[in-house]
Design goal:
Shape: globular
Number of strands: 14
Number of helices: 15
Radius of gyration: 23 Å
Strand order of the largest sheet: 6-7-8-3-9-10
Order of helices and strands: EHHEEHEEHEHHHHEHEHEEHHHEEHEEH
Structural class: alpha/beta
Largest sheet: 6 strands, mixed
Distance between the termini: 37 Å
Helix content: 25-40%
């Protein structure tokens, strides 16, 4: 079944400066980003962005500092207005919204989780978690009921009467996620939400998000500068450079088939065995030709899982199963080939540079 589009960005441009409309024409006429800044004193933040984000999916936008990723996410709820282009939510261009429409969008349909937590220090954990509902004017009973429910869901039952300064960074971010979930918004915008956390806590938060998403199926737009995080979370990956999209699509396919030297360099240092899954390497079948297989592996098993199971033996073939049915065949020689990255073009923006 095809995924329904929840958010669609069409021909989006953002130029910062005193006369962005005039600067836009210069860009359309071929003026580059460096030249626009040097000769015309304007900054090209986003250039011709075209992205579709599926309903109930996690879309990850990533890139180096200054690539435009945080600027882009702030266009989705119009915290930043575009110089040109459209931002469609459920088929309606939010750039045409009235002030009241935008207020309802931000209060009820899109929640945000911030890098710096953005908790109110003078309010309790319970009050912070229920803040969006309180702002909407819901009853105290409903606010507290929903806040308690989601605090329990993110592992903070018993901390309701604590204050933010009494919590660790990871716990504070759990409050931020509970607040976003309590709002019952269809879409969650997460801007570098885990970047301020220690590595182990960050991994815990990623796992929590995936666990929640498996049940809730929210539309999530997640900003990160970390490639490993992007590959772990993304259903759809968008990689930005200097304000434009270099490549987007299934993160597995981007890793296997980078379409630009920049992307080749970007993914060259990632642990491919830990990230790539069997479905990306297998040969699809209709269940035939599987009599000579050594055993079964799952369609979403990582290549690392298969290597461990095989004991390093490269002559084995495996039947690939999904929901109890055979859907493909995995040749270990294909697996080994997938572990070898395409040669990087030159020293450049590697994944390690993002941290």
């Amino acid at each position: 079944m095809a995924t329904k589009t929840k958010i669609e960005i069409r021909q989006l441009y953002k130029i910062f400066g005193p006369n962005p409309k005039q600067a836009l024409q210069l860009v359309l006429d071929g003026v580059s980003k460096p030249e626009l800044l040097e000769k015309h004193d304007h900054v090209l933040g986003l250039q011709d962005i075209n992205v579709s984000m599926g309903e109930g999916k996690i879309s990850v936008i990533m890139g180096l500092s200054g690539s435009g990723k945080s600027t882009l996410i702030r266009h989705l709820n119009l915290l930043i207005e575009p110089t040109a282009g459209e931002v469609l939510v459920d088929g309606i261009d939010v750039t045409t919204y009235s002030i009241d429409d935008l207020r309802r969008l931000r209060q009820s349909r899109m929640s945000m989780v911030f890098q710096k937590f953005a908790l109110l220090p003078h309010r309790s954990v319970l009050q912070n978690a229920g803040l969006a509902l309180a702002v909407r004017g819901e009853t105290r009973a409903m606010v507290e009921g929903e806040a308690r429910k989601w605090l329990e869901r993110v592992g903070l039952a018993g901390y309701e009467e604590h204050y933010p300064h009494q919590l660790s960074g990871g716990m504070q971010q759990r409050v931020g996620i509970a607040r976003a979930l309590a709002s019952n918004a269809e879409t969650m915008l997460m801007d570098e939400a885990f970047s301020a956390l220690d590595p182990l806590i960050r991994t815990d938060m990623q796992n929590l998000l995936l666990e929640l998403q498996a049940d809730l199926h929210k539309t999530i737009v997640f900003i990160t500068h970390d490639l490993d995080e992007a590959m772990k979370l993304a259903d759809h990956l968008v990689i930005l450079k200097d304000g434009y999209v270099v490549q987007q699509g299934d993160p597995q396919q981007i890793l296997l088939y980078p379409n630009d030297p920049y992307i080749e360099d970007f993914v060259s240092d990632i642990n491919r065995a830990r990230v790539l899954r069997v479905r990306s390497v297998m040969t699809p079948t209709n269940g035939a030709g599987l009599s000579d297989t050594f055993g079964e592996v799952g369609v979403d098993d990582t290549l690392e899982d298969v290597i461990a199971r095989s004991g390093g033996e490269t002559s084995h073939n495996y039947a690939v199963v999904q929901d109890g049915a055979a859907v493909g065949k995995l040749d270990m020689k294909d697996l080994v080939r997938a572990l070898v990255p395409r040669a990087a073009s030159a020293p450049g923006a590697r994944a390690a540079d993002l941290n």
